[in-house]
Amino acid sequence: MHGPDASNLLERLDALTQAALLQGFHQRQLVEGELLGSPNGERDSVFIVRSGRIRVFLAFEDKEYTLTFLEAGGIYSTHSQAYVQAVRPSEVLMGDTVQTMATLRSLPSAVPAIIRVLGATLDNCMRIIEDLAFRDVEGRLARFLDGMLARKGRPHQGSLRLELDLNTEDIAQLLGTTRQTVSSLLNRMAREGILSRAGNGVFDIHDAERLRARSQ
Amino acid sequence: MHGPDASNLLERLDALTQAALLQGFHQRQLVEGELLGSPNGERDSVFIVRSGRIRVFLAFEDKEYTLTFLEAGGIYSTHSQAYVQAVRPSEVLMGDTVQTMATLRSLPSAVPAIIRVLGATLDNCMRIIEDLAFRDVEGRLARFLDGMLARKGRPHQGSLRLELDLNTEDIAQLLGTTRQTVSSLLNRMAREGILSRAGNGVFDIHDAERLRARSQ
DNA sequence: GGCAAGCTGTCTGCTGGCTGACAGACAGCC
DNA sequence: GGCTGTCTGTCAGCCAGCAGACAGCTTGCC
């Protein structure tokens, strides 16, 4: 989410490699709000999302910045300074990082896929830095919507419908700003005819052209 | 630079593995200001810095944000949306990414090192995001100085001397702010007795305690 | 029905930091 | 000496966006 998805690791591997890699992984059910990992967490794990929705975020004092939402197929690691939390009931496959590294030694065919996943995560981070360092909130919002449009937009009555299932606060945390600012920007764009809101978390984009122009 | 260094890849490998990995790499001399890579550059390369100083930065319109400076031992890739530029005459060992990936398949012992390097780069990116999303410029500056202190500080007449070889503008670009703001913050810290400036790019930190407190 | 919880919209005041402009200090060079 | 280029310090003006407060709307529950 928020840009091209962290690539689906499993799709890129043949069945045998897949099975070998996932040896030692165990399935885990998460309830809504459950923390999978936090900075300085005891144990390093890698995990793959089977279902549900996982939020990866940074926190400092009482602010939070969402790095990404993971859905089915998403892969991440609980090391790093990020918090990892299920925002709804979810299922994940978890494995120990150290053990997975060891498995990799005897599974060279999986290496390029792994490196590509890491590379995609890195790209995502760089995009975020670019956003935070250079763009104002309106630019970030436009870029976010434009990116989601490419991934999730569906034609609907002459416009493009975007069902994000995110509320204003969620979007604000993805952009590193406040709910109030997102709210007023979205309404300004609505007034300008760029989009309209068709219920909570549902947007109809009427002028993708102008949206993209704003994301530069 | 700017936090723990992107780990020195070569140190972590035995001589044989090293030689195998660097097969096909070629040495290249860079003059000051030379661009090694830019977003949408034709060819993907990996490179290792032998000497000199390389700046990795993002650019947008007329602003630039420096992600890191690489010195001897540093490793990076020219893929990604970053620009890579020699800020002084430098020597690098360059290799083709695709070919290096292929080499890796038959060199499983190098995989953990590679993954660790990628992981360190990712950690650095996350630290930057944390800074940009949560901290004001003074906090970022304090954190930057504190980090450099740990890596480059040398006792000097009862204080800790920091020879950064960076001017105010360079620091501003590392922090995502302007030269003027950095200048006034440094002078405020000097007035408060936290540090003093002993020439361009040289700082004496008198109160590391209070510096750290400001970086939270 | 009433009540609470969650989501949204809007207003107001305040401020961190950007921008542009200018001046002083210093080094190297002709 | 004067000239140029590089680096630094400082000031005034301005504004994007934060923070707090409040109101309206829905939904679900007792």
Overview of this structure, please?
- Two copies of one chain form a homodimer.
- Chain A is α+β, with helices and mostly antiparallel strands.
- Chain A folds into two domains: 10-132, Jelly Rolls (Sandwich); 136-215, Arc Repressor Mutant, subunit A (Orthogonal Bundle).
- Chain A has helices at 15-22, 97-105, 111-134, 137-152, 168-175, 179-191, 208-215, and strands at residues 26-30, 35-37, 45-51, 54-60, 63-70, 75-77, 83-86, 90-96, 154-156, 159-163, 195-197, 202-205.
- In chain A, the strands form three sheets. Chain A has a four-stranded antiparallel sheet with strand order 1-8-3-6. The first copy, chain A, has a four-stranded antiparallel sheet with strand order 2-7-4-5. A four-stranded antiparallel sheet of chain A has the order 9-10-12-11.
- The longest helix of chain A is centred in the middle third of the chain and has 24 residues, at 111-134.
- Chain A is elongated.
- The model of chain A is unreliable at 1-6 (pLDDT under 50).
- The interface between A and B is large, with 37 and 36 residues.
- Chain A binds a DNA duplex (30 and 30 nucleotides) through residues 136-138, 167-169, 177-181, 183-184, 187, 197, 200.
